[in-house]
Amino acid sequence: MVAACDASPAMIAQAESHGGVMNGSPIAYTVAPAAPLPYPDQTFDLVTCQQGLQFFGDAGAALGEMARVLVPGGRLVASVWCPPEDCSVFHAFMLALRNAGLPELADLMTTPFPRWTADELVARTRQRGFREAAVTAVTRDLVFPGGLAETMAAFGGTPLGPRLGQLDAEASRALVAAAERTFAPLRAGSSIQGPMRSWILLATV
Fold first, then answer.
1. Which of 30, 114, 119, 153 is buried deepest, with most CB atoms within 10 A?
2. Which class is domain 33-204?
């Protein structure tokens, strides 16, 4: 059994629109929160959570649910972004928002980047029913081949998008001008490119 859930109906619809995985098992999609998960106890051998834990209202409860649905010896693999200073593309956009006089939007951008240490993440996981947990850091480059225009368009597709779309012409121009400066160190030819650092959590129940 392969199951996938997300609290957003739009995200589930987007996933379903891609169809199945070639030569892979069918995937059962469900609109559901991270806690409680809509599955019986000890259902899965493996749970994955990619850049989701930091968004949950109660990360501890979500971890407890992941432990509950795993069979004994089952594993969890999760990724969590490190602080924004270690995620250069997003950090550059946060700086652009602040420099353009949009501090409230800059503060909203910090949500996906909890300042958890590796030890804190291990402790949170063990407190929720996992007997083993380890965290390592992995860095990969985020690349926008289309340069600043593509980068700005990508941020328009984030949860911040509706707020960005409501900016008046003057504020929009100020944001683009600020972004020209803050993204300058990340220019690589015609691309915008910068490292993104994540914690990778491996845990066993």
1. 114
2. alpha beta
